[in-house]
Structures are given as structure tokens and as C-alpha cells.
Request: fold
Amino acid sequence: MNGKPKIGVYVCHCGTNIAGVVNVEEVVQFASTLPDVVVARNYSYMCSDPGQALITDDIEKFGLNRVVVASCSPRMHEPTFRKTLLSGGLNPYFLEMANIREQCSWVHEDPIAATEKAKRIVEAAVVKARRLEALDVKEVDVEPACLIIGAGIAGIQAALDIADAGFKVYLVEKSPTVGGHMAQLDKTFPTLDCSACILTPKMVDVANHPNIELMTYSQVEEISGYIGNFEVKVRKKSRFVDMDKCTGCGACAEVCRMAGRIPNEFDEGIGMRGAIYLPFPQAVPAKYTIDKENCLFLSKGKCGESPKCKEACQAEAINFDLQDEIVEFKVGTIIVATGYDVFDARKKPEYAYGVYDNVLTALEFERLVNASGPTGGKIVMLERGKKKKKKEGEEVEPPKVPKSITFIQCVGSRDKSVGNEYCSRVCCMYTAKLAHLAKDKIPDCEVTIFYMDVRAFGKGFEEFYDRVRREGVRYIRGNPSEIFKRGDKLVVKAEDTLTATPLEHETDMVVLSVGLVPRSDNREIIDLLKLSQSSDLFYLEAHPKLRPVDTASDGIFLAGVCQGPKDIPDAVAQAKGAASAAMIPMASGKVKVEAQTSVVNEATCRGCGFCVAVCPYTAIELVEVNRNGWPVKVARVNEALCKGCGACAAACLSGSIQQRSFKDIQILPQIQALGVK
Amino acid sequence: MAEKNSDFEPNIVAFLCNWCSYAGADLAGTSRIQYPSNVRVIRVMCSGRVNPLFVMNALQQGADGVLISGCHPGDCHYMQGNYYARRRFMLMRNFLEYLGVEPERVRMSWVSASEGAKWKEVIEEVVSGVKSVGPMNKFQRRQLNW
Reply:
């Protein structure tokens, strides 16, 4: 059906976006002189209904068999116009787009130069269109299962939604428990809901849901395949505790020789744990884990006479011979919900975090106010790194309660000096919340907040900010320059920028409202899934407005803070969005696969195998065929595996393997059109 | 040597991978970042698709310079296509130098989908590089009727 080309060229004004710079009439005039162009038109918005109707009408009227749309980027509207061709009865791959908006009218101010460039771009599209071929759109089955990486609130919510809809979910979490950062929080702003009360039921649900296979203390090691058919390999790290036998009684942790000597990550290092531990009492699964780096028996080969935990465990769950387990499974879609790290306050040495015991990060303070935290919810002055050895009969002095607490906002956010230009979106409000909790627990405590701006943009935020100020929390506008010690007191040096007064503010405790940053191990997921990053280094969505949960790769979605800072309701909303996006291909059961695959001309292929060597997907193999009575080897492409990168076409010495829609014969005319002066 | 003319506006053909550099060039547009109009883009799915033949062909067809741009090392949508592109580019550059083509004419860059501003910098560098060596008129050949 290729026939002699009859091309229609449609130049879009895009309102004034294109027509404001490019002389579209002139481009149309020029296009109508190009070979095989039967009709050339311009219209205000080609993507609108009447715009698309122009194309379908002309297909009928002029018998068009190729269409060139000169408008925005093909990354924007190629799918739209492919559908237009389809509805006009043409193969959708007879479309070529000329990007005269993003790469022409929006980046050049000079109308003459921009119009000249637009003509070249249109000509290149026309000469390519002459050589376009019809392609088959193949459909493959979609495995009705989803892999979710990360079991914080975003991953948990997405897992529950998908599982409730009846699809299988594999929920993989790196740490020993689900819950993520939300589990560390005490209350949530602005409603002061208890974080655990709203989170723990969901944590239990993911563990018990018949459609969810929960893999904690596990890591995704390999992912291959494509939408509908991803092959996943997960390493379930050994806990050295038999998950089926462990009852979670905790007898082992009490007797561990390392008990109370290892900083507990969950408590941000303020609380201590042993080598065998449960991160926190409500952890799910409620099974103990031996940290092999710190376990004396596993790291040194000897733990006293014999490991005490093993003796203490009545369920006989502890087994030092347990090995990592590798599990493999197939999924149709993937949701990445890997969350964030908090900003490392050591990168702001002027705030002396890590130098003075009572300069804390907000997450550490969160653990202090949390009723299930290391101090049972008491806000006390910290004495870090000191081992208190109780002597016989000695009275232990109760820890001091701070009389004044000072918060500093925007630590690691809106700060080019540490490379983080963005606002972390949660710090203003969590600071207000922590200030409220401090006032609540220590009514006579002076609470001061140093801020740059207060961004109380969400539902109920401004009201909460107002309430906290009325409770007597003092807000000082200024970005402190230094924290130092004078006697027992910490001194915050700053300028009140509203009154232009330099000040030295004395306080007992400083809390740094640290921002949210991409996880330090972000690279692992990027390497696994080939995700892109935005300039803030969070994962990049497919489109900032219209495809905020999608990635550039079909079938892979984003949820939660891994895509950019957001609070709990936003993370949950995005998780629900990602879940429903992931369910679309799973519910339809079929998905269209790449049609721009490679194809071999077996008559000229000499079977050298260069293409086989460069193919990243092992989609090409050499097969023996009969050529004029002689057995010869030729390359053959497995189209289900080919993803259409074209590496083989560039490697082929004889030009025998070509990528559909990007064949040499299609690209060379483009080069000629663009090269001509 | 080609005459160096201060009015000389070079004509540069660029091969951009769909996932990173083409998206980065689109982002420059969305952000309304202005840059010289000398560069004309051919979109390929991966920089690994760029056959050295394309570069030679562009120089023959009248282009004064060629730019190949792909994803940063490690970020290739197809895992290793940009590494193939880089290796080919290195070999090709030696060959072109042997033929007497100035290294300023044929360039390679890494521009990610979020680097609209970097795209502008690359364009400005490439354009000024090609301007410094003047028009390309070594390999001219007759036009073909495709």
C-alpha cells in the first residue's frame, strides 16, 4: 500500500506560539513546492478537533498517503496525530512531524531566521515522509502483576489500591520493615493526626493482603523486558532468623551482647539497638533481623561461649546458616516509590551539627517527641556518644529538659551553596508542628523559629501556622549565619531582616529543619530502569503537567518523594495516580509494542554477526538459511525483544539490517535537506 | 584553508537521541531559552543509531558542521547505545582529521532531558567552533534525487 507518495503538509500556528515568530504562510507556500506534496495548509491549532478533521478530510479528498504535521515536538503530539491518521484510514506510521515550535519558534526571536529554519525542518520531514513505510502495530499480553519498589506510604498505598483491584503486587522494601519515613513521625501536620495511628493499619494490610507478596529486607537486582513483560530478580537478604518460626517475642534482642550499643537507624541514631533487632515495636513484619556487620558471631565468628540469642529463642528461629535467597518473577508494570533522604546537615558546617550534642536535625527531634521513640516522647537534652556506666549505688541524674528550643528553617533547601535550589515543601509546616509539640510538652519552653519565608500553601496550612503563632512561638525572619557555644548555651547568630537588627540568640537546643534530598542510592534504580533525573536529581516524570506519574519508559511509574518533595497527602495522591496508571495496561490485558524495530534484508546479509554483538537486548541471532542451494548464516531479529534503538543498523557494514522508520534511506534525504545551504 | 568571513553563518546538522538530547532541546524551547538558529536537528531514537556515514554525508551535502548528542554515560535509554556512539565518534574523529577536516566541525555532547540550558551552551560552542574554521567545501558532491 506504499504506492506513489501523496503528501499533505499541515503547518500549525499554535495560536501565536509558532505564528508569532515563524511566517506560516511562507512555510506553506514553500511546502507546496516540495516533491510529492499534494496539499499544504495552515491552521490555528492542528491538534484541535477541526485541525485533525482537516487532515482526515484531505486524506479522503486528495487520497493522501503521507502526512507531515509541522507543529510542536513529536514527543508532545505524535501519538495524537498518529490516531488522526488511523481514523482517516491511513497507517499511523505514515506520519512525520516537523518540530517548529520547541526547536524553532520558541528558541529564535528573528522571524526571518526562524522562518528559514522552519522551511528546512519541514523539507526534511517531507523528504523523509516520501520514504515512510506502513508498520504493523503488534499487541502483546500484559502480565497482570505489578512490582512496587519501596514500601513507604506511597508504595504501601499503591500496593493496596492495585491489590484491591485484583492484581498481584510484589512489594519490595530494602529495610527490614515497611512504613518508610512516615513511621518515624509522631504527629502529622496540619491536623495533628497521630502518624502511627493512620499508618500502621495500612502496614498490617500490605502484610496480610492475599494479592500482595511482601518482600522486606530485599533488593531488586535485575530487571529486563518491557511493558507487559518485565522479568524481575530480587535478592531477599538473609535475616538469619527463620521468618516462619520467629514469633517476634524479642527475647533474643534482650540478651544480645551488642544490645544498646548500635545506633538504631530508625531512631536516627538517638536510640540504640542490638545486633538482633526490630527497628520499632510496630514494625511489619514483626520479625527480628540480625545485622551481620554488627553481630559478633557473624562478623567475628565468636560470641562469648555461644550466641545468647540462639539460646534465648524458644521458637528455635535463629539459624546462622541461612543464606540470601534469589526470587524471580514476571510483572507487567513497575512503580518506583523509593522516597528520599534528609539533607545531611554536616554540609552546613556553620550550624555545627555533629559538633554540639544539642544541635539536632528535625527528624532526630521527631524521634524525641515520638511516644514510641528512645525517650518515650520526652524532650530532653542529649548527651551523645557518652557511655553511661552505672556504678554500684550511684544515682543516675535525670536528663535535663531544654528551657528554650530554636528551629532553623530551609537547611539544605533554597540554598545554592549546597546545590539545592528547590523548596522542600514540607519543612515550614513540620517545623510549625514540632514547635507546637514542643510547646505542648514543655509549656514554659521558649520556642523560636528562624525562617526565610513561611510557605503555608496547603489545605489547612495557613490556619495551623496562625495557631502556632498564637500559641506563643516566636518567628524571626532571618537566615542564621553561625551557631557557637557560650557557657552552657548555644548561640544562634543572625540578623532579624524585618528590623535590620543583628542578634545573638541564646538557646538550649537547636533543631535544623533539614530539607528532602534524593536518596544517596538513587543510582541503583537509575541503572536498573534507565530513569532520567530532573535538575534537582529527583526522578524525572514524562511530562511535568500532564504525565506526572509516568516515566519516559512505558509501564514504569513514579510515586511519592522519589519524583520530588511532597507531603503525605500529595504522596498518597500520586501513589493512587500511579496505581491507576499501572492498572490501565493490566486491566486491558494487551499493550501495543514498539513497531519501529529492526529488519534484515537476508539477501544481502553476510552473517558477520556485528549486529548480534551490539544488540543490548540479545534480540538478534544468526540463523542458517538456504541461499541458492548453499547454507549461509544470516541475522534474524526477534521483534518481541527488539526495542528499536537502531544500534545494529549503525553497526551493519552492508546496510542489510535497518531500523524501521529510521532506515538509512529515510535519514539520508533528511540530511540532504538540512545540509543544503 | 577556507576563507574566514565574519558574516559567515554556518549550517550545522545535529543528530539527537529521542530520550535525552531531543527532550533537552525541547525543554530549552519550553523554557524559551534563545540560541543561534544554525543547528538543524534530525531525531533518532538513540545516538547509537548514528552511522559515521551520516556524518560524512552531511559534510558532503553542504553542512559546515555536525553535532551528535546523546544521554550522559550510564543514562542511555537503551543501556549502551551512547557508548557505541562515543567509540564510533572517537574513531571517526581521527579519520576526519586524517582527511583534513578540522576537529571543530564534528562534535559530540551529552545533554540530558533536564538540561535545556546546557543545550543552549552546546549550540553556542558548536556554532562558534564551526565559525572559527569557516565554510566546509572539501567534500562537495552533486545532489541526489531521493
Observations:
- The helical segments of chain B are 21-30, 52-61, 81-99, 116-133.
- The longest helix of chain B spans residues 81-99.
- Chain B touches chain A through 53 residues (CB under 8 Å).
- Residues 12-133 of chain B form a domain with the Rossmann fold fold (CATH 3.40.50).
